[in-house]
Backbone:
């Protein structure tokens, strides 16, 4: 539903024009002077302004300039009296989309309106996509040749051209939004908006407003009309991330919006209809949440028409060298370090880590290493913190009588492994098996602790 402001000081003309536009399913705001019209422009998400040229107080030309100073892209159609050619030309030079002379027929007006709102939609979409190219939302950012990932590529190619709702599952950091964008980009809606929202990032009241928008004055702080993500995604795709975190009361409203493609803004009574595709993602087992009563069963089946499950990184370690090379190249460019590389020893070390944070953790690890490494070479020491022993630690070690504790024929690697294993077990016991606290007490990262636990076959408790 497109939103239009009509500004005219003639009440009868204002009524007739606004009724005509409402009959054509436009959402219409009206003002009988330029000053009030400018206030509406600044408080409402508009897509077009139609204004008379001659008005007392702030005339149409002044209003045009004020609007362009506020939002240069917002199209404005000027209405002029018959024979006023020079003011019309001046308005076009000042940025008006077009002008119509009175009297004009309705078909001419509607044709200009449709051209204007379509032009504005394209402008806004170009702004949204100006830094995005096909490689970003195709498969190029989904790095890997693992068998399971290749199956996901084929599934995306099949489901992309359809309108089917897709539920994307997998642990945090596995790349669920990349899959959602790939589905959108490989669909007929690729040129329409892709709008995402994290359902876990906002409390229930704000989440409802973000999803469906709100009217001015709907609640404290609602100083202007605002369109929600559903409305912004019209003709395109909406991606509901962290779907398992949505509060149960809001699930019912979402179900209706998905089923009927209709909703009302918070504080409003007008039913808004949209045409969009639903993609959702979660790191939870939604079926188990349904059984626990935390998630609506009907909503689950509405979302889970087709499921794409992303494997964790530890189950596709054959892709680790490709992913590592991708991130090294990415941060070499971002940090202006063209000579950046990673040693084979550091690469092998990365392959032995558990990667509970998945690809996101790997990316953060490489970024940190790219900043810390010397001479442009990422070493093992760069992918783990280099905690120097404190003076107290050195003194404690110096007080140990190794002659009494260690046999003279003990091999150094065996000795170090024994000490390390005992230290890890002691730290875990002291930390009540909380790995983060144990890692902090040992002066290492949680990932390195998990690697050592795997190496020494120390079981999680």
Residues:
């Amino acid at each position: 539903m497109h939103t239009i402001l009509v500004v005219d000081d003639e009440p009868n003309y204002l009524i007739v024009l606004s009724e005509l536009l409402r009959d054509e399913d436009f959402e219409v705001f009206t003002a009988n002077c330029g000053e009030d019209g400018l206030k509406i422009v600044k408080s409402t998400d508009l897509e077009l302004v139609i204004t008379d040229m001659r008005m007392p107080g702030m005339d149409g030309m002044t209003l045009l300039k004020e609007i362009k100073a506020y939002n240069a892209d917002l199209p404005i159609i000027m209405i002029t009296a018959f024979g006023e050619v020079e003011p019309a030309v001046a308005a076009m030079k000042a940025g008006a989309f077009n002008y119509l002379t009175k009297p004009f027929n309705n078909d001419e007006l509607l044709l200009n309106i449709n051209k204007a709102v379509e032009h504005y939609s394209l402008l806004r979409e170009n702004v949204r996509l100006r830094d995005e190219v096909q490689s970003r939302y195709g498969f190029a950012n989904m790095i890997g040749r693992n068998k399971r990932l290749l199956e996901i590529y084929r599934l995306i190619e099949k489901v992309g051209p359809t309108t089917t709702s897709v539920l994307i599952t997998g642990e945090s950091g596995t790349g669920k939004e990349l899959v959602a964008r790939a589905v959108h980009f490989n669909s007929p809606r690729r040129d329409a908006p892709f709008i995402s929202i994290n359902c876990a990032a906002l409390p229930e009241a704000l989440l409802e407003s973000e999803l469906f928008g709100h009217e001015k004055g709907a609640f404290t702080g609602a100083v202007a009309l605002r369109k929600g993500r559903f409305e912004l995604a019209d003709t395109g795709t909406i991606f509901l991330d962290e779907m398992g975190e949505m509060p149960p009361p809001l699930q019912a409203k979402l179900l209706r919006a998905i089923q009927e493609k209709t909703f009302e803004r918070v504080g409003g009574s007008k039913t808004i209809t949209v045409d969009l595709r639903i993609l959702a993602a979660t790191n939870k087992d939604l079926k188990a949440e349904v059984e626990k009563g935390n998630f609506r069963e009907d909503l689950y089946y509405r979302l889970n028409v087709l499921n794409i499950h992303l494997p964790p990184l530890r189950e596709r370690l054959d892709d680790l060298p490709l992913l590592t090379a991708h991130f090294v190249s990415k941060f070499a460019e971002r940090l202006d370090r063209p000579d950046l590389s990673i040693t084979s020893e550091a690469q092998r070390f990365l392959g032995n880590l558990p990667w509970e944070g998945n690809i996101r953790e790997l990316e953060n690890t490489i970024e940190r290493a790219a900043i810390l490494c010397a001479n442009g070479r990422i070493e093992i020491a760069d992918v783990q913190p280099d905690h120097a022993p404190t003076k107290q630690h050195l003194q404690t070690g110096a007080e140990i009588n190794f002659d009494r504790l260690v046999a003279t024929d003990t091999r150094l690697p065996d000795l170090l492994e024994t000490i390390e294993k005992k230290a890890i077990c002691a730290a875990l016991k002291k930390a009540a098996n909380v790995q983060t606290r144990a890692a902090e007490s040992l002066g290492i990262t949680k990932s390195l602790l998990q690697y050592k636990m795997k190496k020494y076959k120390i079981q999680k408790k």
User: Anything to note?
Assistant: The CA atoms of residues 287 and 427 lie 37 Å apart.
